[in-house]
Sequence to fold (224 residues):
Amino acid sequence: DAGVIQSPRHEVTEMGQEVTLRCKPISGHDYLFWYRQTMMRGLELLIYFNNNVPIDDSGMPEDRFSAKMPNASFSTLKIQPSEPRDSAVYFCASSSHGGANTEAFFGQGTRLTVV
Amino acid sequence: DAKTTQPPSMDCAEGRAANLPCNHSTISGNEYVYWYRQIHSQGPQYIIHGLKNNETNEMASLIITEDRKSSTLILPHATLRDTAVYYCIVRVRGGKLIFGQGTELSVKP
Fold:
């Protein structure tokens, strides 16, 4: 398996534009996580899914952020409208079963810059 | 969620063992201790995890105290490529991984 695949790797957009980040989890994994990393706040869990259903979105910062998982092999994180303070690295991770005795595998991240 | 406490930074000489401590005094009986590391701006990488017993794999060893209130990650022969931020995490039910600030390990020649 190629691991968790995120696209794009880098995104530069203007304030007010819509941004869509994409993630393909490892095949067979039924948990998917979205994280955001900044220097000030570190790694923050935004939302996670189990079997394509959002389980906990308490980390989503504002209504401008939304995440979907239409099927087991694809998820999106959308920001509309984007703001400069959304600039960060966004990571997607997946794991199987979700019990405590499994590890999560991370993608390489999408570096978002909003100007 | 149980919280963890780690020193913000540590140094280690190349070739020596790196011992990274972690306190998790409020851990519950069914919660595991996980260790991840993040090299530069890459995605976090899984290292090892354990419940009660000490664990060892090809990357590291994990020593968990008998009362489970603290643990130590051991890199037996640190190399320059082990320079990274190391995160100690208690895995809660539901699969969430909550990251703290971690320990920035610098391996020096």
